[in-house]
Amino acid sequence: MKNRMLIIPTVLTVLMFMLLLCGTGHAVAQSFAVKANAGTKGIGGELAVSLHEKINVRAGANFFSFSYFYETEPDDDFDLDAGLSLSNYSAMVDWHPFGNRFRLSGGIIYNGNTVTAEMQPKQSYEIGGDIYAPEELGNLEAEVTFSPITPYLGLGFGNAFRGSSFGMNVELGAMFQGSPRVNMSADGLLAPSASQGPQFEENLSWFTAYPVLTLSLYYRIN
Question: Where is the signal peptide (predicted)?
Fold first, then answer.
């Protein structure tokens, strides 16, 4: 939390600095571009607007989902059903300090990313002389979520408003999402295991920055 509170004013300062630089150059005729994105934020698109010869703004959304059922060996105790859902909306400012394709970017992302996992018993257990079927043992479910308002900083190469009206961008950065939150639930004999959520949160507390790599194809409309 303390690191995130430091990052937010840093991002705002960078954005204000870039906007103030608009006053040092010449305004350009407003242009628009559309982008198709693919990367670690998911697959999606953006609308970009040129406000100044060195300043562009853009807004977009990215989505992706993946699920995997891992069926273990017959003599193992559990099967695992896992899922990843990427869902984020972004508002960005791009600053091209040298007026070319190189850029520094900052903004805010609404982060709806989640990771889920469910452990499903597949064998009967003997406890204290009593035998319990898998359905009596119950299932254990976990969901990992992140702070919904996430500052972003990055750098990239590409400018939809310079040169050809069609081209490609690449961007590398990080979403400063804070420590993950873990919610666990269980039923049956596994119900007490749900109390381990805080321990899992502590184990994941290092994962405060989500790496972002994005490749984009753009087309300038005017």
Answer: 1-29
The 10s digit of each residue's pLDDT in 147-204 is: 999 999 999 999 999 888 999 999 999 999 999 999 998 887 777 878 888 888 999 9
Neighbours of 215 (CB within 10 A): 13
pLDDT band of residue 10 (cuts 50, 70, 90) is low
Show the domains of the chain with their CATH numbers.
Answer: 2-22+30-220 (2.40.160.170)
CA 118 to centroid of chain Cα atoms: 22
CB 186 within 8 A of CB 196: no
- How many angstroms separate the CA atoms of 159 and 170, rounded? 10
For residues 181 and 205, the answer to whether their CB atoms sit within 8 Å is no
3-state secondary structure of 150: strand
Q: Which residues 6+ apart lie within 8 Å of 199 measured at CB?
A: none
58-81 pLDDT, tens digit per residue, is 999 999 999 988 876 767 777 888
* Token duo for residue 136: 């009596």
| pTM higher than the cut 0.85 | no
